[in-house]
């Protein structure tokens, strides 16, 4: 709840990327094995899910769901 | 070998029966023995089961207090964000991350460990308090935004996208 409007700074993608890679690696998950496991349908469903959530987050961050009152 | 004595009424018996015949108590002791194992207690011999599950919460504790006090003023515009919408969005993102891990890696110990570690990054506690007083004013425009939550939501989306890219879904 800051009184400074404007888009907050994002966490660098590099940090997120490293975090995810490291977590997967430490748990001994080989990405090459995982990639072949997903069917095209599953990929499509996940893709739509991510796109939908991306839209929602963008909408929230750019235009906050705000209540406006004139007093 | 001495007789067993009931701890309660000192009734003697050659065998420690389940309950004392006289007073129905179920603890026995053997006086002339220094062995540790000279107590019989039938009430606490349940088989022990040790269960440890991987339950760790992604606890995002968030508290926002907002007070806007407007007094003796006119033409004041207030715009404040609705944090509840953000919370449901965050839950949606968490579910999506868990789902992708579960589908791609499987509901194995490995998969659960990955999900757990990723959600651990989000354990944060946040308290925001804000008070705004407007007194004896005209033409005031107030805009408040919950930026901390927005950052959190963006971070979760970034993780989701990173996971999906790594798993070759997009």
UniProtKB/TrEMBL annotation, chain A:
Keywords: Capsid protein, Virion. This is Spore coat protein W.
UniProtKB/TrEMBL annotation, chain B:
InterPro entries: Spore_coat_X/V. The keyword Methyltransferase does not apply. Keywords: Capsid protein, Virion. GO terms for cellular component: spore wall. The keyword Cell membrane does not apply. One of its GO terms (biological process) is sporulation resulting in formation of a cellular spore. Residues 49-105, 113-169 form the Spore coat protein X/V domain. Pfam families: Coat_X. This is Spore coat protein X. The lineage of its organism: Bacteria, Bacillati, Bacillota, Bacilli, Bacillales.
């Amino acid at each position: 709840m800051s009184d400074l409007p404007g888009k907050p700074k994002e966490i660098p993608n590099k940090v997120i990327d490293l975090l995810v890679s490291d977590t997967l690696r430490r748990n001994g998950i080989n990405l090459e094995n995982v990639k072949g496991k997903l069917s095209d349908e599953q990929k499509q469903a996940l893709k739509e899910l991510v796109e939908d959530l991306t839209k929602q987050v963008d909408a929230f961050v750019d235009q906050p769901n705000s209540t406006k009152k004139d007093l | 070998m001495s007789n067993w004595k009931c701890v309660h009424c000192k009734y003697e018996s050659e065998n420690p029966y389940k309950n004392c015949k006289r007073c129905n108590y179920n603890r026995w002791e053997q006086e002339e023995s220094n062995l540790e194992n000279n107590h019989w207690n039938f009430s606490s011999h349940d088989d022990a089961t040790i269960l440890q599950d991987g339950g760790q919460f992604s606890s995002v504790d968030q508290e926002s207090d907002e007070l806007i006090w407007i007094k003796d003023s006119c033409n004041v515009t207030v715009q404040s964000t609705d944090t509840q919408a953000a919370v449901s969005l965050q839950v949606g993102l968490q579910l999506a991350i868990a789902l992708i891990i579960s589908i791609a890696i499987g509901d194995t110990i490995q998969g659960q460990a990955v999900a757990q570690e990723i959600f651990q990054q989000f354990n944060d506690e946040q308290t925001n308090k804000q008070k705004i007083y407007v007194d004896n004013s005209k033409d005031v425009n107030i805009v408040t935004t919950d930026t901390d939550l927005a950052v959190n939501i963006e971070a979760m989306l970034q993780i989701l996208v990173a996971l999906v890219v790594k798993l070759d879904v997009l």
